[in-house]
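Help wanted!
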Amino acid sequence: MIKDRIIELTSSLPAGARLLAVSKYHPVEALQEAYDAGQRLFGESKVQEVVAKKVQLPADIEWHFIGHLQTNKVKQLVPFVTLIHGVDTEHLLKEIDKQAGNCGRVVECLLEVHVAQEESKFGFAPADVLAFFSQERYKQYPNVRIVGIMGMASHVVDEAAIRSEFKTLHGLYEEVKSKYAPWFKELSMGMSGDYRIALEEGSTMVRIGTYIFGERVY
Ligand SMILES: *Cc1c(COP(=O)(O)O)cnc(C)c1O
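Answered by r_m:
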């Protein structure tokens, strides 16, 4: 049951780590059940879907956006989103900054970093993240606060390979935080299949869907 999963996960988290319940493609009844078990952070990956769900659920939910965000959808998301996890281009950052300015908000974001072996269309290389901060390019986006990084490990069974990718993400996070961005506070990594390893490697937020809600029906 959803309720049992939430309680089990929440009670096993180390200090300093939080659970994001990834509720994409699941009906509002499932989210309500998680909410009733005490869950308040929900992650969605489609703007239309989160906009529709938000009005049917309690107002104290924190909505996080975890998918690939298209620039033409930013305007609808920015008024209420708590954290955008997957900022993968500076072009997107620029649009978030513009729309956040228009509604008088400073929106918290994470840069998505690509470390997995698989070819991915999305995410910054670690070197690009370091350059972005050493050149203080974030200062061009005053309505955005980049509070950390987000990453995904490869879909492999080799636990050592997954662990090594999480270590790379954690190392990058610590380097940026210590050299350039002392305000860093979130290292978003770990999903249903690998969240235990991610927590051991310093994750501050695990994004768990399937383990809580079951398989998604697309
Ligand atoms: C869907 C998704 C998740 C959740 O994955 P599960 O394997 O269902 O736990 C986590 N992070 C991102 C970025 C996702 O798109």
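OP: Thanks! One thing I noticed: The pocket of pyridoxal-5'-phosphate is lined by residues 22, 24, 45, 66-67, 191-193, 207-211 (CB under 6 Å).
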